[in-house]
Task: inverse folding
């Protein structure tokens, strides 16, 4: 099996989980990746063998990285994929998201290989939300234009052999809006291993301040501005400390917002980027995890890792009413749902979970849902079933 990843590797949590699951099942797993740091071109890792793009050292790192941009027409990616397929003879190609899907389609078909699109997000809607927030740049007109990205998606989803989606709402969109046959779609979600939820519930909080955490990228459509405003509104109502784990395009805007609202270091903490394990450890010390995303198409048709990370860690969850996260929180009893974009309603939801027993009950319900339903072992079974089915079909066709 060959997995096509359009960034440097390591590291990406979903890429690692997918490759590790297939390797554990007995697949010979290879991964192609970008190489901006000029790492070794070939490297064996626990989840598979990595084939990185050969650097053009004479150009220097900056120009070399620019010319390795994951555009479907980039001949460097065509060459890397073709050479790797000739060397390792995979039975199936899996391509992550849209940027390199046309390239992978072209190369895979040339070698007679079935191809799977691992659609970890609604990429056209995600790009559109950035434009709607006014945070796009000049280069985005050429390489991240929402209309062009949507056209690429339409082209790809009708030609790949299967599509992996992270949530049911994403599959429903593909069937309803893009005509993808329902039997070509598999839900392989962003869930954690059950082991991460196998720990004793924490004791009731008592009288200490309520610890509230956010984990992820710092971008306007993710609702962090409303979360900061809610923290400011609550400071005179109850003791709350907000910890924001991560960073991103709009990080400076949010730091300026917090300073302008007069939030002290005791009331809000910006950790910056942390390694994945360290980030999860910081989040695990909180009482409540927040998914404040705006209820736009991007977040109505995907599910963020952080929701399941919070539940596995034993946190109560507050989510906006973006459809998939709200559905899961309501049906599992894992926490509270607020109106997206409404800082006051978010503040009220936080205040409701300030009740120690209510917070503990929600946390335990979310943890139980991970053990019962939302765990990687179940999603890995769906992944392996879909990939091995294609591999067997190819074997039968070749025989």
Result:
């Amino acid at each position: 099996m060959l997995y096509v990843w359009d960034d440097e590797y390591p590291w990406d949590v979903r890429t690692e989980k997918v490759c590790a699951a297939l390797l554990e099942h007995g697949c010979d797993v290879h991964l192609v990746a970008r190489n901006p740091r000029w790492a070794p071109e070939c490297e064996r890792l626990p989840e598979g063998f990595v084939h990185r793009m050969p650097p053009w050292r004479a150009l220097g790192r900056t120009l070399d990285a620019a010319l390795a941009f994951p555009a479907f027409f980039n001949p460097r990616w065509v060459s890397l994929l073709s050479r790797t397929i000739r060397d390792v003879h995979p039975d199936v190609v899996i391509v992550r998201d849209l940027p390199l899907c046309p390239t992978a389609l072209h190369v895979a078909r040339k070698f007679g290989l079935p191809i799977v699109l691992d659609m970890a997000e609604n990429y056209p809607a995600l790009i559109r939300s950035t434009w709607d927030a006014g945070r796009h740049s000049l280069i985005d007109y050429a390489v991240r234009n929402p209309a062009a990205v949507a056209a690429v998606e339409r082209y790809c989803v009708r030609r790949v052999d299967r599509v992996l989606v992270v949530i049911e709402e994403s599959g429903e969109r593909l069937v309803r809006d893009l005509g993808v046959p329902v039997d070509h779609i598999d839900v392989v979600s962003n869930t954690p291993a059950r082991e991460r939820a196998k720990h004793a519930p924490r004791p009731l909080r008592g009288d200490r301040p309520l610890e509230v955490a956010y984990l992820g990228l710092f971008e306007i459509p993710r609702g962090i501005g409303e979360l900061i405003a809610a923290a400011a509104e609550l400071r005179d109502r109850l003791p709350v400390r907000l910890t924001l784990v991560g960073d991103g395009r709009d990080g400076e805007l949010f730091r300026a917002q917090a300073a302008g609202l007069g939030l002290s270091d005791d009331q809000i903490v910006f950790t910056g980027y942390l390694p994945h394990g360290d980030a999860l450890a910081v989040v695990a010390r909180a009482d409540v995890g927040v998914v404040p995303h705006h209820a736009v198409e991007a977040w109505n048709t995907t599910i963020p890792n952080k929701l399941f990370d919070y539940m596995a860690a034993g946190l109560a969850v507050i989510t906006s009413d973006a459809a998939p996260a709200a559905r899961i929180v309501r049906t599992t009893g894992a926490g509270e749902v607020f109106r997206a974009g409404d800082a006051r309603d978010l503040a009220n939801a936080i205040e409701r979970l300030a009740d120690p027993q209510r917070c503990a009950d929600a946390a335990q319900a979310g943890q139980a849902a991970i053990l019962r339903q939302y765990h990687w072992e179940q999603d890995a079974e769906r992944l392996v079933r879909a990939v091995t089915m294609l591999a067997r079909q190819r074997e039968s066709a070749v025989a």
The domain at 2-191+376-398 is CATH 3.40.50.2000 (Rossmann fold). The mean pLDDT is 95. Residues 376-398 form the longest helix (23 residues).
